[in-house]
Amino acid sequence: MRKNNLFSAIISAMLFVSIISGQTVVNPGGTINPTRNPNLPPGPGDITNISFNKQAFEASLTNALAPNVMGYQYVLIKNGAVVSEDADGWAQAPGDGSVAMTTSTPTNIGSVAKFLSGTAMIHLMEKNNGPGAYDAGFTLQQKLDRPFTTIVPDVWIDGNTPGVASVTLRQLLQHRSGFNDNKPANRNVLGFLKDADGHFPWQLDQRQYSNINFVLTGYLIPFYGNQWMKGFVNNSVDDLGLGIVDADEMTKDFAGAHMHKTMKARIWDKMTPAILPNCDAANTLANTAAKHYASSTDTDPGEITSQIVNKGHCSGEGGYYMSALDLANYLAHFSSTDLIVTNTGRNAMFNDAMNPNDRLVWGSSTASNYMGTNFNMPNVVWSNGIAGGYRAAIIRFPMNYYLVVLTNSPDLSAGDLFNAGRSAFVAATQHNF
């Protein structure tokens, strides 16, 4: 029986409800205050003597968003500072909460959460070099080639499909793991690892987007950061006499709680201001978070979701609620400080000389003649999120500009959000050429 007293005590100790369910306090006026490292090299696509027409940017992006969604919010940053921000429409529709959308409204970012877990994993590879750390003294590129099953508990090793043992951390972060995404809708971690059709070795190094890559990445974060946890989980499984299904559930609960705790302690708490992404919004942000709707004119009640309700723990592939300002703050610290990753880490994730298929963490890459011709940035990398009616996009532009766009109805696709952001950037810079 899974939930015996000892098992429940172990999990309760790991969930840290007060950690999971807080909400970030944003500085008055939505200020983001990271201190840019003056020794960092120029941002991607930096070109001198380029002016930015903020009014043209805002007119283009607002006109693309405002008439077409229930509510929207966006924030544009450069070198870690806010350049432009706007929000309008409804986070909770009239008669269904009547909450206006702002740039501080927590919203489900969907798969953009993969950027949080992916960069946290690279953070640990770069900065977790103390006694007992995995691969101490190795380069980042060497650490990326560690097979992921070397750091997980036995339940995720014994009986795996041949080929799983060779999958590396790099391949998970690149969606090149060989895990087959043409799967039954209910396939879980055990299914991917152990089903005969869960993993195809001949698909290794073929990019195929699959949530399981970052489900696993999220669970791996605490095990990579703390070698003792693998033994602790193995001993707990043995002490409780758990079968494989219950051992898997306990491992996921343990790892999900510690994933969140690790990201909070090592990154989120150290940001300026600190942030606290929320994976239990349905229970903790019911009166303030954006609900998602079927369309911009939907009159039915909207919904707020919770990974704690759905899975029992936070997860690395999606389900976090953040505001555009908080997500922009994360990107500010990512792009303009060494808190999250160093310049080595950023360049390993993507650089303009890289084959886009070799990128890490970033979900998509789109070729752009305009960016290539004028900024020597032939490919624009970005990540998107889809969760119910929520849509989200984060985009890396030339000159160290980063854009966050969040909506809460699906009238515009994630691709539409990218196109709207790209068009706005063109509108703001085209007068230079």
Q: What is the straight-line distance between the termini?
A: 68 Å
Largest sheet: 7 strands, antiparallel
Mean pLDDT, all residues: 90
Structural class comes to: alpha+beta
Unreliable spans are 1-6, 11-30
Helical segment tally? Answer: 16
CATH class categorisation of the largest domain: Alpha Beta
What is the general shape? Answer: globular
Q: Care to count the β-strands?
A: 9
Features:
single chain; alpha+beta; Beta-lactamase; two-stranded antiparallel sheet; 16 helices
What does this structure look like?
With 433 residues, this protein is α+β, with helices and mostly antiparallel strands. It folds into 2 domains: 264 residues, 3-Layer(aba) Sandwich (Beta-lactamase); 139 residues, no CATH class. Helix content is 37%, strand content 12%. Strands 3-2-1-9-8-7-6 form a 7-stranded antiparallel beta sheet, sandwiched between helices. Strands 4-5 form a two-stranded antiparallel sheet. Helix 4 runs parallel beside helix 8. The chain is globular, with a radius of gyration of 21 Å. The chain starts with a helix and ends with a helix. The relative contact order is 0.21.
Compose a concise summary of this entry.
The protein is of the alpha+beta class and 433 residues long. It has 16 helices and nine strands. The protein has two domains: 15-117 and 272-432, 3-Layer(aba) Sandwich (Beta-lactamase); 130-268, no CATH class.
